[in-house]
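Entry 12.
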Amino acid sequence: MENFEEILNTFINEHTYKVGDIVEGVLVKLSKDFAFVDLGTKREALLPIEELKDLEGKILFNIGDTVKAQIVKNLSAEGQFLLSVKKILEDEAWEEIEKAFNEKKPLEVNITKAIKGGFEVTYKGLLTGFLPQSQVGKEVKDELPVKLPVLIINLNQRSFVVSHRAYQQREREFKEKALIQKIETDGILEGKVKTTVKGGFLLEFDGVLTGFLPLSELTRRRLKPEEIYLKEGDSLKVKVLEWDPQRKKLKVSHRVLEPDPWEGIELRYSFEQRVKGKVVKIENFGAFVELEPGLEGLLPASEISWKKGLKPKDILQEGDLIEAVVTDLKPKERRLILSLKRLEENPWDVVAKTLKVGDIIEAPIKTITDFGLFVEVREGVDGFIHISQIDWDRVNDLRGQFKEGEEVRAQVLELDPQKRKLVLSLKTLKPDPWKEFSSHYKLGDVVTAEIKREVPGRGYVVKITEGVKGFLPMSELGEIRKREVSEGQTIKGKIILLDVEQRKLWISEKAYLMEEEKREVEEYQKTSSKKTSKRLLKIHMEGNSL
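Predicted 3D structure (tokens):
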């Protein structure tokens, strides 16, 4: 077996180097002036420290790094060499610059200092180039960064000219092309809020395109005008609604990317289901209740309470959390109707169980109108007393006779819970004066009447008794009365028409006067006949005495 020294000599002989060779070795030590590189020879090669520094004085290698270098000098017979790396590094860097120039690919350079007409730049700390002032992108004019991506726009031996503006334009074109491809495929983009404008927001996409996001396309949820939805710099995913390639204008929507709450709604909600939600908008016709983000149901004013006359704002406020009942659901029409009052038993059903026609109730007057009274039988149920059901006699001034809140006693005339109709009467609790009258008078009887008012050209309305009025036709007046009749006068007349059911009663003064005249004639005739008989008897008796 060969000893170690023979093996080492063989290895060294096989690795004989000469000046000009390109070698690789490991940097094993650093001193003040040299770096020591192990090439596998008896003695370590020397590499001047200055060779390891870039143009800015930064050491390019560390101990343990593999160094590619060129032998520039043989320092001893034992095979100690002097190395150089600068030219190799510069050559490699220049090759990269040429390749980037030919392929129009970007490089990153360091700005070292400002010089006339622009800036001095270095590539990898090895080669020096020039960045004209006109080729500095506007984003970095005020405060230049140390490092800057650029495109090579000119080469001249070992110097080069770069442009940051050209790089930006290239990147912009790439980004724009990629964005347009997205627009024309799925249309889903990621943008940042640039500013707030009237009716929405301007979004910037990769710094190359601007799109308009209308407020109505921000979300499916109902938004309040005073809310701050987005601020400058916020990122947002959107879908393109409209794209104008000529003007490069976009209209986008975030709303369409949100799940549509109406899809599959029939699987989550059903008729008469109890639901919970938040009141988000109140109008005179009802309130909108948000059940899910973007899903609202309408609570009509008529479905808020059984109590009539209440407005939504009387019992609800925006932001209230309420429970309601689904009364109508039509997914295709995006229609969802809710009811608050149906959480309680229908008061009309309660009334139907406790009242029947003929029953007598006591209730406060709720409203007085020209045509009758509304009384609150119970909350949510009003009964109506028509003016004709107030009294058997004619009533003209309800407000002068009654007050709101006053308790009245009435009888049920009609009850229809389905139509929510409850008709009441006050007068049926009083004796019917017509029936009372008809029990004492009949057709042909003579009555005394008071003239109440004239019906021009026809006759006079007259009062017979309390609650009973009749009519005196003009043709039934006595001859003298035709010139003397006035309101408040009393006359006597004969009943010539009496219909209790129809409440009709006519009297005739003429018939009464004719009957009186006939009676007087008969009375006179009777008296005259008696006188004549007495006189004849007297004559007869006197004759006999002669």
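Annotation: DSSP finds ten helices and 30 strands in the chain. The two ends are 223 Å apart (CA to CA).
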